[in-house]
Amino acid sequence: MxxxxxxxxxxxxxxxxxxxxxxxxxxxxxxxxxxLREGEICKSVYYIKHGAFFQFKENNATQHIIDLHLxxxxxxxxxxxxxxxxxxxxxxxxxxxxxxxxxxxxxxYLISQSQSFLQFGRIFNQSDNRxxxxxxxxxxxxxxxxxxxxxxxxTLTFPLKMVASYxxxxxxxxxxVRANY
Length: 181
Hints:
Layout: H1 2-7, H2 14-23, E1 25-29, E2 34-36, E3 44-50, E4 52-59, E5 62-70, E6 74-75, H3 78-83, E7 90-93, E8 97-103, H4 104-113, H5 128-134, H6 140-150, H7 154-157, H8 160-167, H9 171-179
Antiparallel strand pairs: 1-8, 2-7, 3-6, 3-8, 4-5, 4-7
Helix pairs in contact: 8-9
């Protein structure tokens, strides 16, 4: 399992894989449990072994979905983690889930033990999908097509209202787009 996670990041020796496995922690997370609350500082990255999470900002008791996370991906609040500043979003479990936790101090320790762990820098560039989705002035159909291509399980895992919020369109618009599919 750990070898497969690291395989997507880069090349690691057996010794490095064993060290990584020794240093990370495994946590079960119940549905609706928070990994990060707005205002807290993000100090870890999480690999989702199984389950689903959503990252959101709450405004007047309305949740605005910032990101939807599925198994076999890394998850964190980029700005809070890299700047060590209070998070402007929360991360909450959508389903009962299991994660591997790699905290920042452990990552620094791993890098001090082997330069190979610098390859973890790749996980910090994941926001490219969000940039593609929101910085390219895509229409609702193009946004839906994009997530169906990049992360098709989103539409199967999360309810229409959450997917619409993530895409920054109304649920009615998303329903019309999906009807054309």
